[in-house]
Amino acid sequence: MTFEKVQEIIASNLDIEPERIQATSRFKEDLDMDSIELMEVVMACEEEFGVEFPIENADGILTVEDAVSLIDQLTK
Amino acid sequence: MRIAIDTLGADLGSERIAQGAIQALSRSEKMEIVLIGDESILSPLVTEKNRARVSIVHTTEKIETTDKPVMAIRRKKEASMVKGYQLLKEGTCDALVCCGNTGALLAGGLFLSGRIKGIERPALTPVIPTKKGPKIMLDAGANVDCKAKFLLQFAQMGKIYSERVFGTKQAKVGLLNIGVEPGKGSQLYNEAYDLLKEKLDGFTGNIEARDVLDGDYDVLVADGFAGNILLKSVEGAASTLFSMLKQALTSSPVTKLAAAVLRKPLRGIRDQFDYHEVGGAPLLGIQHAVIKAHGSSDETAIMNAALFAEKFVQSGVIEGIQALNTEEE
Fold first, then answer.
1. Nearest to residue B95, comparing CAs of B283, B295, B299, B301?
2. 3-state class (DSSP) for residue B4
3. Beta strand pairing call for B289-292 and B127-130
4. Is the pLDDT score of B78 beyond 90?
5. CB atoms < 10 A from the CB of B261, how many?
6. What helix, strand, coil percent values describe chain B, rounded to 5?
7. Which of B120, B171, B250, B328 has its CB surrounded by the most CB atoms within 10 Å?
8. Higher pLDDT residue, B93 or A34?
9. How far is Cα A45 from Cα A61, in angstroms, rounded to an integer?
10. Quick one: pLDDT at residue B88?
11. B36 has which bridge partners?
């Protein structure tokens, strides 16, 4: 469930098909995202899930799986 | 037309900012003002005369100059600037005028308002006074590291802004560079030159810094690093020159006499460099109208910033930039 929502958020932000986004997709290398695009996704996720990512910037989140795991931890 | 005014974060204090905004109401029949700030300070400024056109959104939290921009807009949800962006997103206000932390305002533009689809980076777009009148320059510091495509988009957005707000017919666009000949400058600037030449009607070529104040362009494009250096160099040089001129003109009875004769024309020149008269710098490329006013803005500067925000919204610049992406598709 979390993964699907995150997938949707990323797809919407990047204007790509959701199917292109896998759990193992790396934000920079596979999805070609820069730091601003990554922060946009982080903030969209924070709003969607009602959480605050405990990071100063988004560089610590390398893959889609990382984001999903963090959200699941924060929403427990 | 509702203009939100962030009254916190300015050097001169909330009350003076609010008073400036209220002064704008006498110059515009349709404007309404939303003052964001401490209600205990702002409420006394709402009178029978302006009550129908002034409302207050209360907060005492502000983003400090020392706050890290992205963290500040993420964590200070009650900060006046963040509340301003919320009003824009809700559609409660048509524009936001803000004097505070520029980095946070830019971060807010990116992450709270959001980029217009297809725009890689928004650009801060101040006015430069020149011999041929005010001209616009972007980017003035929002994007220190740029790609050539960003500069092309700055040029496209700047053109739309110049034509719709300043009434320029077929705006001419120049690229700030270290020489006028093609092939000058860094790899970025070479790539930008080729891209502008290929894709932008009205591109006139490179412009050296020493020619900027001649004003033989309508839009001057640069990356944020060079743009910011240029802007502050012009401001600093103008300020120093006027200070030296004043010192020279008041140095003896004879020069004082000359100063009295020259007062009006000199004041006219000085006013061209006075940010109080300009209004503010829009952040082009985001979904909403956001105007950055100078941190030390007084009542006159804020009044002009609010009037400028109204004009900016009415001009349809944002719609014009949105249409860029549609054209390219």
1. B283
2. strand
3. unpaired
4. yes
5. 9
6. 50, 15, 30
7. B171
8. B93
9. 13
10. 97
11. B6, B57
Please judge whether B110 and A40 are an interchain contact, meaning their C-beta atoms are less than 8 angstroms apart: yes
Average pLDDT, chain B: 92
Interface contact A43-B111, CB threshold 8 A = yes
Rounded mean pLDDT, A51-75: 84
Question: Taking CA atoms, what residue in A is nearest to B74?
Answer: A43
Decide if B114 and A52 are in contact by the 8 Å CB cutoff: no
* Chain B residues close to A46, C-beta within 8 Å: 74
**Dist. CA B133–CA B213, nearest whole Å:** 9
Half-sphere exposure of B78 (CA within 13 A, CB side): 6
pTM of this prediction? 0.91
Q: Tell if the CB–CB gap between B74 and A40 is shorter than 8 Å.
A: no
For residue B165, which of B320, B10, B327, B7 has the smallest C-alpha distance? B320
Q: Closest CB to B111: pick one of A40, A52, A56.
A: A40
What ipTM does this complex have?
Answer: 0.80
Angle between helices B299-315 and B14-25 (to 10 degrees): 50
Half-sphere exposure in the Cβ direction for A9 (13 Å, CA): 22
Q: Which residues of B touch A (CB under 8 A)?
A: 68, 70-71, 74-75, 110-111, 114, 117, 121
B149-159, pLDDT tens digit by residue? Answer: 999 999 999 99
